[in-house]
Design brief:
Shape of chain B: globular
Number of helices of chain A: 9
Strand order of the largest sheet of chain B: 3-4-5
CATH topology of the largest domain in chain A: D-amino Acid Aminotransferase, Chain A, domain 1
CATH superfamily of the largest domain in chain A: ATP-grasp fold, B domain
Number of domains of chain A: 3
Order of helices and strands of chain A: HEHEHHEHEEHEEEEHEEHH
CATH architecture of chain B: Single Sheet
Radius of gyration of chain A: 19 Å
Strand content of chain A: 15-25%
Strand content of chain B: 35-45%
Distance between the termini of chain A: 21 Å
Order of helices and strands of chain B: EEEEE
Largest interface: A-B, 21 and 10 residues
CATH class of chain B: Mainly Beta
Structural class of chain A: alpha+beta
Oligomer: heterodimer
Number of domains of chain B: 1
Structural class of chain B: mainly beta
Strand order of the largest sheet of chain A: 9-8-7-10-11
Chain lengths: 264, 60
């Protein structure tokens, strides 16, 4: 918002907690919205509702729908021919146990929605998997019973975050933590990572695959150092990235994109 | 000259929380005394409330 002010942008804050949209009516609010809502479902439905009344939302509801759900993201990445860890989706816990036998251990069970590494569980063998899946079955939400499974790959303590704005990677950071989940929210530290041609290519294509104009693309190296795309975040938090890249003003680059879009 | 907002009271421990000059409504700040996450409800007068609890679909 400070970056927008510096550029003479006029804006207002739409608080999703007090937002309602009446479909089919004339919207008198802003024509253009950047979506920074932290909660996935509020972000998704806010974007959809606003688009319904003619508002341009960045990122689009379609992009939020895909990138906010790990299976939809994986499907989009696979469709785009991008390297991504072996992933399975099981519609019940019983199916998940069988899928894990095929995927092999160690593996990772992740909730379809949510981030900051919460509820992401490493399962080392069938006994652990059985216990985790019993807990999953006890969760109240029907969506929680659909099980996203992924092979555990790569270097245990770090991944690569690339911030992409308007199809252009701004830079990359290694996120290194004390545990295998490398979210800054869990205490991981962001360090500079060279933006190689390969990283640029994968990150640009991954953001395009989910349709996100503003994206935080997570890459991970396997044991042989080959890069794969782990996920794409559409409402990217960039505090850690900005600290590691003082030469890039992320907010300013986002404002560049927004002003260009608004003008067109 | 930028105005610095003082004197917002932490709703949890009543400590004084100093807000930055460009503090905005709905911004999240932390009380240095009790470490509570707080939301700026208003800048004039400066008013803080406890920030919403993290929900299971939060994240980037």
């Amino acid at each position: 918002m400070t970056a927008l002010e510096k550029r003479g942008g006029v804006f207002e804050h739409l608080d999703p907690r007090t937002l309602s949209v009446a479909g089919g009516t004339t919207w008198t609010g802003p024509d253009f919205v950047i979506n920074r809502e932290v909660g996935h479902y509020r972000a998704l439905y806010a974007a959809s509702a606003l688009e319904c009344v003619g508002v341009t939302v960045v990122n689009t509801a379609a992009a939020t729908h895909v990138s906010g759900d790990k299976w939809h993201t994986s499907a989009a990445l696979l469709k785009a021919g991008l390297p991504t860890p072996a992933t399975s989706l099981a519609l019940t816990s019983d199916a998940a146990l069988k899928a894990l036998d095929e995927l092999g251990y160690p593996a990772v069970i992740k909730p379809l929605v949510g981030s900051w590494g919460r509820l992401v569980t490493k399962v080392t063998d069938r006994e652990v998997a059985t216990a985790v899946l019993e807990h999953i079955e006890a969760l109240p939400s029907p969506q929680a019973h659909i099980v996203y499974l992924q092979a555990l790959v790569g270097k245990a303590d770090r991944d690569i975050r690339v911030v992409v704005v308007g199809g252009e990677p701004l830079g990359a950071t290694h996120r290194r933590g004390d545990e295998w989940r490398t979210n800054v929210a869990r205490g991981a530290v962001s360090e500079l990572c060279p933006l190689t041609d390969e990283i640029t290519d994968l990150a640009t294509r991954a953001a395009a695959a989910v349709g996100a104009d503003i994206a935080g693309v997570d890459l991970i190296e396997d044991e042989e150092g080959r890069l794969t795309v782990l996920e794409v975040n559409d409402r990217v938090e960039f505090r850690g990235f900005q600290s590691a890249h003082p030469e890039v003003d992320v907010a300013d680059r986002i404002v560049d994109l927004l002003l260009a879009r608004a003008a067109s | 000259m930028q105005k610095t907002v003082y004197g917002a009271e932490c709703p949890e421990c009543a400590a004084e929380v100093t807000l930055e000059a460009d503090a905005r409504v709905s911004e999240i700040v932390e009380c240095v005394e009790c470490r509570s996450e707080l939301e700026i409800e208003s800048t004039e007068p400066p008013t803080l409330i406890l920030a919403p609890e993290v929900e299971e679909d939060w994240g980037e």
